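Researcher: Quick one. four chains, 424 residues in total.
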Amino acid sequence: MARTRGSVGAETEKAIRKAAVELIAKHGFEAMTLRDLAEHVGLQPGSIYRYIATKDQLLVDIMAEHMETLIAAWRAADRPDADPRLRLEGFVDFHIRYHFQRQKEVVIANLELRSLTPDARRACVALRKTYESELRGILEAGIVQGFFTPTDSGIATNAIISMLTGVCFWYSPKGKLSADDIIAIHKRLVLGGLSGTPRGEAKIIPLAAGRN
Amino acid sequence: MARTRGSVGAETEKAIRKAAVELIAKHGFEAMTLRDLAEHVGLQPGSIYRYIATKDQLLVDIMAEHMETLIAAWRAADRPDADPRLRLEGFVDFHIRYHFQRQKEVVIANLELRSLTPDARRACVALRKTYESELRGILEAGIVQGFFTPTDSGIATNAIISMLTGVCFWYSPKGKLSADDIIAIHKRLVLGGLSGTPRGEAKIIPLAAGRN
DNA sequence: TTTAGAAACAAACGCTTGTTTGTTTAATGC
DNA sequence: GCATTAAACAAACAAGCGTTTGTTTCTAAA
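Model:
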């Protein structure tokens, strides 16, 4: 054989991407063979090279595209002028919901940084930092306005991101709890952790208006 | 050459372990070659097989040993009859401090589960669950005794573990904050998140006695 | 001092990997 | 209907992989 009947390049490219995401998330980038990938798409190994420059570049494309759409999606959802507590709830909601939808990409973005070339790694780490600084901005605004207990915003950002991203690794849609349930629990953990006063005296600042 | 002057088996074995932990944590298990490992120890590739049965088994040994000593160390540190809030603070303290000491092993234990054979993976996942259930026990005790806001203890356990383990991935001893600082911040985040009442009414239960 | 065993080397094994090359077939514009 | 291009195949490439084998050198007990 040669060219398959009905084959279209754009569709093949998408199929390769999808299969690659699946295989990398499942077995890891190094463990995924191009022969394995080709078989899942129904191609011969060499044919993949119509659509990718190199195996390394395939990973770079997947990771960079994921990070960029993540940042863009958040910026579209955020309301930078709102109450920091509302923004923070919104961030928790957005992060978990988005990550449920792209669980595999998230796993890849978090586990395969070390499989990238130094240059590509730097670029992806920078994108990650960009996303994290969005959360950090919320925390600092909340601290300045007196809603959150003063703390090191960098550490708190890392801690919260770790917690929220961890969801992707253990969440299963088949569990007894819905996504909404899990989001609600995490909202309470995060907001409580920032405004909490675990040792006695409480400083409660009531929330002004009341959407959400 | 053949046998090196002054070579002792026990020392070589430790050197192999150490180098393996370093290389796996840095590049991933699949990306680490036995040739690379041998070179770091100063051996020929084949000589490694005096000390390991197979490459897969090397990973199993590293992971299982780490999980077992982790569980044992925690059980030695825990005081099961103490106030759940104190136990929880103790857990945060222990977990972060222990994980700082064994940063590389922790990275491996968290990233390389998928590189294990199904049997080995099941065993390691079971060990992980054992450790997590220790934290879960504290949360449930705290909820029953009215110290923590009722919530799904399984989800909360996962969330807290994710947050605390995440430290290993971004912490550097060269940072401006000491381990103690970071631990303090995380204690507040965790305890505040569990006892926090982010929406208005506060329910504060003063802590009884006062060690720690 | 001799000898048994421990610790390493040197060299190769079969296999798999990412990738390249040349060819063949299907779709498409003139 | 024909030429061109797109999309795939088939086959091989060199390099690298985990692993095995047989041998050599050092150590330590007799």
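Chain B touches chain A through 49 residues (CB under 8 Å).
Researcher: Thanks, that's what I needed.
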